[in-house]
Each structure stands twice: as C-alpha cells, then as structure tokens.
Amino acid sequence: MVPELMLKVIRFSMLIVVLSIGALSCSTVSTSERGSATPRLAVIMGISEYLQMPITLQLDASNTYQNWAYLSGFPLTLEGNPIDYRLTPLSKDFEEGFVDDNFAALVRFAEDGSNGWELVELSVGATDAPFIGWLEQYSLPASLIENMVEKR
C-alpha cells in the first residue's frame, strides 16, 4: 500500500513541476513556438496560462483528423474540483453570468514535427459555440467536432 501511495505522490509532484514550468514559460495562449508532446498537454498549458493557475482536464470530446485534434470538456483544479472562476481573469465576466464552465481547443501537430502539438484555437468559458467557425477557417470536416455539437 505504501509504494502505491508513494507512486501517486511522485506522479502528482511531476505534474505540478511540468505545469509550473509550462506556466512560467508561457507568454500567450498559443504554444506555436514551443509545442507539446500531446494535444492534451498543449491544452493544459494553454488553459493554465489563460486562467493563471495549474489545471487538469475532464474531457468530453477528443477527436482527430489528419494532423489536427479537437478537445473539449471542463478544466479542473489539480485536486479534480471545478474551477472557481472568481479567482481567474474571467472573474468579472463570471460574476455577470457570461462564463460557462467549459473549454474547447483546436490543436495541430507541426507538419515537420519540430514543434510537436501546437495550440491553434482556445475557448474557455464560452457561452456560445466558437468551435463552429474553426471548421471553415481551417477547412476541417464537421466530424472533428461531432460529439461536441450533439452535447450542446
């Protein structure tokens, strides 16, 4: 039992280090200059930077098409709790009722593979469906966001 607990503590510590390094090195929501090893990590880094706190994700949809990935769901604290948007840059909008607890992200794998996965579009707290316009803008098929459209 003790080794299992130690393993959980080590994993949690590693996640905090990775997120801290990512949050410190981020200057914009886009990860285009550095890329990430996975689409999920690119989104975590982008949302962490945007909300100015380390987060994890609960995914509702994760779809791919060629070198594109679409992810959506809910950002959570590292403890797995809902985000308190009053403690984020979205606090004013949240207090006025203009923030829903959600995210949608469009991520692309660099064609030359040099930068890994790059965050192309990110929406946090949207009360509408901004991802619909992303399909036309990047000439992507509707199947990429199919699960999300059905849930809205």
List the helices and strands and how they pair.
Elements: H1 2-25, H2 39-51, E1 56-65, E2 68-76, H3 91-95, E3 103-109, E4 117-124, H4 131-137, H5 146-151
Helix pairs in contact: 1-2
Provide the descriptors you would attach to this structure in a database record.
152 residues, alpha+beta, 4-stranded antiparallel β-sheet, 36% helix
What does this structure look like?
By secondary structure, this protein is α+β, with helices and mostly antiparallel strands. Helix content is 36%, strand content 22%. The protein contains five helices and four strands; from the N terminus they run ααββαββαα. The chain has helices at 2-25, 39-51, 91-95, 131-137, 146-151; strands at 56-65, 68-76, 103-109, 117-124. The protein has a four-stranded antiparallel β-sheet, covered by helices on one side. It is globular.
